[in-house]
Amino acid sequence: xxxxxxxxxxxxxxxxxxxxxxxxxxxxxxxxxxxxxxxxxxxxxxxxxxxxxxxxxxxxxxxxxxxxxxxxxxxxxxxxxxxxxxxxxxxxxxxxxxxxxxxxxxxxxxxxxxxxxxxxxxxxxxxxxxxxxxxxxxxxxxxxxxxxxxxxxxxxxxxxxxxxxxxxxxxxxxxxxxxxxxxxxxxxxxxxxxxxxxxxxxxxxxxxxxxxxxxxxxxxxxxxxxxxxxxxxxxxxxxxxxxxxxxxxxxx
Length: 252
What we know:
Blueprint: H1 5-31, E1 35-39, E2 45-48, H2 50-56, H3 60-64, H4 68-71, H5 74-88, E3 94-102, E4 108-119, E5 125-134, H6 136-156, E6 164-166, E7 173-175, H7 177-183, H8 193-199, H9 205-216, E8 222-229, E9 235-242
Antiparallel strand pairs: 1-2, 1-5, 3-4, 4-5, 6-7, 8-9
Protein backbone atom coordinates (compact mmCIF):
# COMPACT_ATOMS: atom_id res chain seq x y z
CA UNK A 1 0.00 0.00 0.00
CA UNK A 2 1.28 3.45 -0.90
CA UNK A 3 0.93 6.16 1.71
CA UNK A 4 -0.15 9.49 0.35
CA UNK A 5 2.05 12.55 0.97
CA UNK A 6 -0.80 14.13 2.94
CA UNK A 7 -1.05 11.20 5.36
CA UNK A 8 2.73 10.98 5.64
CA UNK A 9 2.99 14.67 6.45
CA UNK A 10 0.29 14.37 9.16
CA UNK A 11 2.10 11.41 10.73
CA UNK A 12 5.35 13.38 10.72
CA UNK A 13 3.65 16.32 12.43
CA UNK A 14 2.22 14.01 15.10
CA UNK A 15 5.63 12.46 15.68
CA UNK A 16 7.32 15.86 15.90
CA UNK A 17 4.65 17.10 18.33
CA UNK A 18 5.10 14.06 20.56
CA UNK A 19 8.87 14.45 20.56
CA UNK A 20 8.54 18.13 21.41
CA UNK A 21 6.22 17.42 24.35
CA UNK A 22 8.54 14.67 25.59
CA UNK A 23 11.51 17.02 25.33
CA UNK A 24 9.68 19.71 27.33
CA UNK A 25 8.66 17.15 29.95
CA UNK A 26 12.21 15.89 30.41
CA UNK A 27 13.56 19.45 30.60
CA UNK A 28 10.90 20.36 33.19
CA UNK A 29 11.87 17.39 35.36
CA UNK A 30 15.58 18.15 35.07
CA UNK A 31 15.25 21.90 35.77
CA UNK A 32 12.51 21.69 38.42
CA UNK A 33 13.32 23.57 41.68
CA UNK A 34 12.30 20.48 43.69
CA UNK A 35 13.58 16.92 43.78
CA UNK A 36 11.72 14.55 41.46
CA UNK A 37 12.23 10.80 41.40
CA UNK A 38 10.74 7.48 40.35
CA UNK A 39 11.16 4.81 43.01
CA UNK A 40 10.51 1.08 42.72
CA UNK A 41 8.02 -0.64 45.07
CA UNK A 42 11.01 -1.98 47.00
CA UNK A 43 12.62 1.47 47.41
CA UNK A 44 15.23 1.51 44.64
CA UNK A 45 15.75 4.86 42.91
CA UNK A 46 14.80 4.40 39.24
CA UNK A 47 15.07 8.01 38.07
CA UNK A 48 16.31 11.14 39.86
CA UNK A 49 16.61 14.72 38.70
CA UNK A 50 19.54 17.06 39.20
CA UNK A 51 17.97 19.02 42.06
CA UNK A 52 17.55 15.87 44.15
CA UNK A 53 21.17 14.88 43.54
CA UNK A 54 22.36 18.33 44.61
CA UNK A 55 20.08 18.30 47.66
CA UNK A 56 21.51 14.98 48.88
CA UNK A 57 25.09 15.51 47.72
CA UNK A 58 25.28 12.42 45.48
CA UNK A 59 25.99 12.08 41.80
CA UNK A 60 23.24 10.45 39.77
CA UNK A 61 25.07 7.08 39.45
CA UNK A 62 25.76 7.07 43.20
CA UNK A 63 22.15 7.84 44.07
CA UNK A 64 20.81 5.21 41.69
CA UNK A 65 22.69 2.55 43.64
CA UNK A 66 20.86 3.56 46.84
CA UNK A 67 17.34 3.01 48.17
CA UNK A 68 15.21 5.57 49.98
CA UNK A 69 15.61 3.36 53.06
CA UNK A 70 19.40 3.84 52.86
CA UNK A 71 19.07 7.63 53.00
CA UNK A 72 16.15 8.13 55.38
CA UNK A 73 17.08 9.17 58.92
CA UNK A 74 16.51 6.05 61.08
CA UNK A 75 13.99 7.73 63.41
CA UNK A 76 11.80 8.65 60.41
CA UNK A 77 12.02 5.39 58.48
CA UNK A 78 9.25 3.38 60.18
CA UNK A 79 6.52 5.93 59.38
CA UNK A 80 7.66 6.26 55.77
CA UNK A 81 7.67 2.49 55.29
CA UNK A 82 4.23 2.25 56.89
CA UNK A 83 2.83 4.76 54.42
CA UNK A 84 4.48 2.93 51.51
CA UNK A 85 2.90 -0.34 52.59
CA UNK A 86 -0.54 1.28 52.91
CA UNK A 87 -0.18 2.69 49.41
CA UNK A 88 0.88 -0.67 47.98
CA UNK A 89 -2.17 -2.28 49.62
CA UNK A 90 -4.32 0.36 47.91
CA UNK A 91 -5.57 1.71 51.24
CA UNK A 92 -4.42 5.17 50.13
CA UNK A 93 -3.48 6.55 46.73
CA UNK A 94 -0.43 8.37 48.06
CA UNK A 95 0.81 10.40 51.01
CA UNK A 96 2.65 13.51 52.15
CA UNK A 97 4.97 13.61 55.13
CA UNK A 98 7.88 15.49 56.61
CA UNK A 99 11.05 13.58 57.30
CA UNK A 100 14.83 13.79 57.23
CA UNK A 101 17.33 12.47 54.72
CA UNK A 102 20.99 11.90 55.52
CA UNK A 103 23.21 13.62 52.96
CA UNK A 104 26.39 12.03 51.62
CA UNK A 105 28.46 14.21 54.00
CA UNK A 106 26.44 12.95 56.99
CA UNK A 107 24.42 16.12 57.57
CA UNK A 108 20.63 16.06 57.76
CA UNK A 109 18.14 17.78 55.49
CA UNK A 110 14.47 18.20 56.39
CA UNK A 111 12.21 17.51 53.42
CA UNK A 112 8.52 17.40 52.61
CA UNK A 113 7.86 14.22 50.67
CA UNK A 114 4.81 13.80 48.41
CA UNK A 115 4.32 10.31 46.95
CA UNK A 116 1.88 8.77 44.50
CA UNK A 117 1.84 5.25 43.04
CA UNK A 118 1.64 4.36 39.37
CA UNK A 119 0.14 0.95 38.67
CA UNK A 120 0.38 -1.37 35.68
CA UNK A 121 -2.69 -2.23 33.58
CA UNK A 122 -3.24 -5.32 35.75
CA UNK A 123 -3.20 -2.99 38.83
CA UNK A 124 0.10 -4.35 40.12
CA UNK A 125 2.45 -1.65 41.51
CA UNK A 126 4.78 -0.23 38.87
CA UNK A 127 6.67 2.65 40.55
CA UNK A 128 6.27 5.62 42.87
CA UNK A 129 6.49 9.25 41.82
CA UNK A 130 8.19 11.20 44.60
CA UNK A 131 8.38 14.99 44.93
CA UNK A 132 10.99 16.12 47.45
CA UNK A 133 11.07 19.71 48.77
CA UNK A 134 13.78 21.04 51.07
CA UNK A 135 12.06 22.57 54.15
CA UNK A 136 15.17 22.94 56.32
CA UNK A 137 14.81 26.72 56.57
CA UNK A 138 11.20 26.48 57.73
CA UNK A 139 12.18 23.87 60.32
CA UNK A 140 14.95 26.13 61.66
CA UNK A 141 12.50 29.04 61.94
CA UNK A 142 9.97 26.83 63.75
CA UNK A 143 12.65 25.61 66.16
CA UNK A 144 13.77 29.18 66.84
CA UNK A 145 10.17 30.24 67.50
CA UNK A 146 9.75 27.37 69.94
CA UNK A 147 12.93 28.39 71.78
CA UNK A 148 11.78 32.01 71.80
CA UNK A 149 8.37 30.99 73.12
CA UNK A 150 10.01 29.03 75.93
CA UNK A 151 12.23 31.98 76.84
CA UNK A 152 9.20 34.26 76.71
CA UNK A 153 7.28 32.02 79.10
CA UNK A 154 10.18 32.15 81.53
CA UNK A 155 10.38 35.93 81.26
CA UNK A 156 6.67 36.37 81.77
CA UNK A 157 7.00 34.59 85.09
CA UNK A 158 8.90 37.69 86.24
CA UNK A 159 6.91 40.67 87.55
CA UNK A 160 6.56 43.63 85.21
CA UNK A 161 7.26 41.71 81.97
CA UNK A 162 4.65 41.36 79.21
CA UNK A 163 4.60 40.15 75.61
CA UNK A 164 3.02 41.46 72.42
CA UNK A 165 2.55 40.65 68.75
CA UNK A 166 1.93 43.09 65.93
CA UNK A 167 0.52 42.16 62.52
CA UNK A 168 2.33 44.45 60.10
CA UNK A 169 -0.44 44.28 57.49
CA UNK A 170 -3.50 44.96 59.65
CA UNK A 171 -1.86 46.91 62.49
CA UNK A 172 -3.67 44.70 65.00
CA UNK A 173 -1.87 43.73 68.19
CA UNK A 174 -2.07 40.91 70.68
CA UNK A 175 -1.13 41.66 74.26
CA UNK A 176 -0.49 39.29 77.10
CA UNK A 177 -2.39 39.85 80.35
CA UNK A 178 0.83 41.27 81.85
CA UNK A 179 1.03 43.88 79.07
CA UNK A 180 -2.54 44.98 79.77
CA UNK A 181 -1.55 45.43 83.40
CA UNK A 182 1.58 47.39 82.51
CA UNK A 183 -0.39 49.70 80.25
CA UNK A 184 -3.29 49.89 82.74
CA UNK A 185 -5.54 49.23 79.77
CA UNK A 186 -9.12 47.90 79.86
CA UNK A 187 -9.13 44.22 78.82
CA UNK A 188 -12.17 44.86 76.61
CA UNK A 189 -10.16 47.25 74.44
CA UNK A 190 -8.60 45.47 71.46
CA UNK A 191 -5.06 46.87 71.05
CA UNK A 192 -3.77 48.14 67.71
CA UNK A 193 -0.68 49.94 66.52
CA UNK A 194 -2.63 53.18 66.51
CA UNK A 195 -3.99 52.75 70.05
CA UNK A 196 -0.52 51.76 71.26
CA UNK A 197 1.04 54.89 69.74
CA UNK A 198 -1.65 56.96 71.50
CA UNK A 199 -0.26 55.67 74.81
CA UNK A 200 3.33 56.58 73.93
CA UNK A 201 4.45 59.89 75.38
CA UNK A 202 4.37 62.48 72.52
CA UNK A 203 8.03 63.27 73.19
CA UNK A 204 8.99 59.66 72.38
CA UNK A 205 6.66 58.80 69.50
CA UNK A 206 9.03 59.72 66.69
CA UNK A 207 11.78 57.56 68.22
CA UNK A 208 9.42 54.58 68.62
CA UNK A 209 8.16 54.93 65.03
CA UNK A 210 11.74 55.10 63.70
CA UNK A 211 12.75 52.01 65.66
CA UNK A 212 9.80 50.07 64.26
CA UNK A 213 10.48 51.22 60.68
CA UNK A 214 14.15 50.27 60.95
CA UNK A 215 13.20 46.81 62.23
CA UNK A 216 10.75 46.28 59.34
CA UNK A 217 13.42 47.31 56.83
CA UNK A 218 15.77 44.80 58.43
CA UNK A 219 18.32 47.42 59.48
CA UNK A 220 18.33 46.50 63.16
CA UNK A 221 16.39 44.61 65.83
CA UNK A 222 13.46 46.46 67.36
CA UNK A 223 14.84 47.60 70.72
CA UNK A 224 13.69 50.90 72.17
CA UNK A 225 12.99 52.56 75.51
CA UNK A 226 10.15 55.06 75.84
CA UNK A 227 7.54 56.46 78.16
CA UNK A 228 3.81 55.74 78.12
CA UNK A 229 0.98 57.72 79.64
CA UNK A 230 -1.59 55.19 80.82
CA UNK A 231 -5.38 55.77 80.80
CA UNK A 232 -4.99 56.40 84.54
CA UNK A 233 -2.53 59.21 83.68
CA UNK A 234 0.43 57.37 85.15
CA UNK A 235 3.76 57.81 83.33
CA UNK A 236 5.77 54.60 82.98
CA UNK A 237 9.12 53.89 81.39
CA UNK A 238 9.01 50.88 79.07
CA UNK A 239 11.81 48.87 77.45
CA UNK A 240 10.46 47.01 74.42
CA UNK A 241 12.16 44.49 72.13
CA UNK A 242 10.90 42.52 69.13
CA UNK A 243 11.86 40.71 65.95
CA UNK A 244 10.24 40.85 62.52
CA UNK A 245 9.24 37.51 60.94
CA UNK A 246 8.52 37.91 57.22
CA UNK A 247 7.85 34.26 56.39
CA UNK A 248 5.28 33.55 59.07
CA UNK A 249 2.43 35.91 58.39
CA UNK A 250 4.42 39.17 58.57
CA UNK A 251 4.17 39.40 62.32
CA UNK A 252 6.65 40.66 64.90
